Amino acid sequence: MNALAATNRNFRHASRILGLDSKLEKSLLIPFREIKVECTIPKDDGSLATYVGFRVQHDNARGPMKGGIRYHPEVDPDEVNALAQLMTWKTAVVDIPYGGAKGGIGCTPKDLSMSELERLTRVFTQKIHDLIGTHTDVPAPDMGTNAQTMAWILDEYSKFHGHSPAVVTGKPIALGGSLGREAATGRGVVFATEALLAQHGKSIKGLTFVIQGFGNVGSWVARLIGERGGKIIAVSDVTGAVKNQNGLDIVDLLRHKEETGCLTNFSGGDHMDPNELLTHECDVLIPCALGGVLNKENAADVKAKFIIEAANHPTDPEADEILSKKGVVILPDIYANAGGVTVSYFEWVQNIQGFMWEEEKVNYELQKYMTKAFHNIKAMCQSHNCSLRMGAFTLGVKRVARATTLRGWEA
Ligand SMILES: NC(=O)C1=CN([C@@H]2O[C@H](COP(=O)(O)OP(=O)(O)OC[C@H]3O[C@@H](n4cnc5c(N)ncnc54)[C@H](OP(=O)(O)O)[C@@H]3O)[C@@H](O)[C@H]2O)C=CC1
Ligand SMILES: O=C(O)CCC(=O)C(=O)O
After folding, report:
1. Cα 146 to ligand 2 centre (Å)
2. How far is CA 70 from the centre of its chain?
């Protein structure tokens, strides 16, 4: 099932549980605005290359629209649409004053030089600059983008609108970025995991973990779980997978990835078929890469007891059903990976205040927001006798529906 069909299905399920009026349901489902732009750049060899860029602004009832920009060859309008909608529910789940948006460019960032990436980012920004802004739509990093990408957007946007640090988050500290933002999604995933495990009378120490993806989110999740005594027994990236039943040394693995650009040939572990990673025996599986990786083909073979959705929509609805029947507990993306956007909110607040927080304050506030959201989700699960995913969806959708109704539709 494609990402948009899956997201719409989850939304409609939540809407039914909440008993939303069908007109309100339709208004919440249809995006506020969908943008598609052509981005042509000269390559370093003088030839021209054309890419397609998207920004979907899903909903702004609770505040400026917010969400990352992804550079990946599989970026397509339906997926961006789904990811934008997920951002709307996510910002509502953690109760930060934003709506939802997402963007992307269909490209393979590893095949582009730094100067080509810079030109592409600047052209994309030129095409959308009048539709984003500090109080309208605030981009951030996602797969294939990083703090440098945000710095280029900030610079290009500021040529049209004057110096505007709060137009993007996840930017370099030297340009007004927040301490703790780089690690925030991973740290939030770990706080969320701790909250869930505590409820099951468990803790990270001594449990076995398998992690798919070793980029921003996956590498921080691995590092922080390792620091808490969790045993990470298998990890993958796009180049392959590595395993060690006694636990991988994550600091060594990070050094190896930094030096060689891949996980393969790591001396502290054995090569593993990446296709076996998701069904490897473990206590906790944490997908930190692409969407739709858990599906009807592999769900029945998953052996983990807990799945923490650090990636966006890693589990399609068919897999969700199979896994739930097997008793696997799934912590849904719109809560599990909300630490990134939560610290993006702190960054935006700091930019608007012109005052920088200590990293300890950022991490302390992040834990507070993540823990509070977990308890609010649990309360929804109890009220509606539903899964954690539906607990999170009903919490998010209810808050957005309430804001929309209060604002009204008078033209
Ligand atoms: N960055 C953020 O703040 C947030 C990110 N997310 C979500 O987390 C996920 C990861 O994002 P992020 O870490 O930022 O992205 P990155 O681009 O930093 O990292 C992505 C990682 O996934 C790996 N990867 C790509 N394809 C595969 C594959 N087929 N099998 C295994 N690994 C693969 C990449 O491998 P390689 O290293 O070899 O390229 C890389 O390690 C995405 O779903 C994103 O939407 C959610 C909330 C916030
Ligand atoms: O930090 C942000 O604004 C958005 C992060 C994001 O894209 C996500 O949570 O999926």
Report:
1. 12
2. 10
* Mean pLDDT, the chain, whole residue set: 97
Q: Average pLDDT in the 67-90 region?
A: 97
If you measure from the C-alpha of residue 25 to the centroid of ligand 1, how many angstroms do you get, rounded to a whole number? 32
Average pLDDT over residues 6-22: 97
CB-ligand 2 contact for 68 (6 Å cutoff): yes
pLDDT at 411 over 80: no
The per-residue pLDDT for 295 is: 97
* Longest CA span, the chain: 65
Protein residue with least CA distance to atom 2, ligand 2? 341
What's the distance, Cα to Cα, between the start and end of the chain in Å? 37
354-374 pLDDT tens trace: 999 999 999 999 999 999 999
Domains of the chain: 18-164 (3.40.50.10860), 183-331 (3.40.50.720)
182 CB less than 6 Å from ligand 2? no
Give the active site residue among 26, 36, 90, 102: 102
Q: Three-state DSSP class for 392?
A: helix
Residue nearest to atom 44 of ligand 1 (CA): 311
How far apart CA 105 and CA 52 sit, in angstroms, is: 6
- Angstrom CA distances, 193 to 269, 309, 336, 379, stand at 25, 10, 8, 17
Question: What pLDDT does 240 receive?
Answer: 95
The finding on whether 317 has its CB within 6 A of some atom of ligand 1 is no
Cβ atoms 140, 340 nearer than 8 A = yes
pTM to 2 decimal places: 0.98
Which pLDDT does position 175 carry in this prediction?
98
Q: Is 398 a catalytic residue?
A: no
- Rounded mean pLDDT, 194-208: 98
As a whole number of angstroms, the distance between CA 314 and CA 217 comes to 14
